Amino acid sequence: MTATPGLGAPRPASPDLLRSLFRRHAAGVAVITARGAAGPVGFTATSLASVSAEPPMLSFGIGTAASSWPAVAATDHVGVHILGEHQRDLAATFARSGADRFGPPTVWGEGPEGVPVLDGVLAWMVCRIVTRVPAGDHRVVLAEVLAGDPARPGRPLLYHQGRFQALRD
């Protein structure tokens, strides 16, 4: 590899390099939920993206080694929750391996299609999974939005430099 004037020397691609590069990218924080064979499952995601307006579709990534993957692989529907800046603890709970994600203080109920829906989020959607695309050690899930509620006021939670953060003016 050759260096470009004004830029640092490029490093070869690796998982550590990718993580280091994406720490520079601020991302919104979402929690994805699904019904699992043994109860509800969920995980924190920063890979949420709008894909299409007609039909309304979104995408997110999930690691195939994640504890939620078997449920997401088997289900037809997921809940997608956009977190507010007041929900750092909720984001951390759903990001932590081995945590009781649906126990107190998490407040949730059963939503459309039996999907676990979290209380107090900025917005939530129930989606029908259209496909799961292999992408290395992850799957990119494409899902059609069936219903949702964007009504709660507030500012979004962000993930940047390895931490949950709020917007600054």
UniProtKB/TrEMBL annotation:
Query: Is Oxidoreductase given among the entry's keywords?
Result: yes
Domain Flavin reductase like positions: 22-166
State whether keyword Oxidoreductase applies. yes
What keyword terms does UniProt attach to this protein?
Oxidoreductase
The GO annotation for biological process reads: pyrimidine nucleobase catabolic process
The molecular function GO annotations come to: FMN binding; riboflavin reductase (NADPH) activity
Protein name as it appears in the record: Flavin-dependent reductase
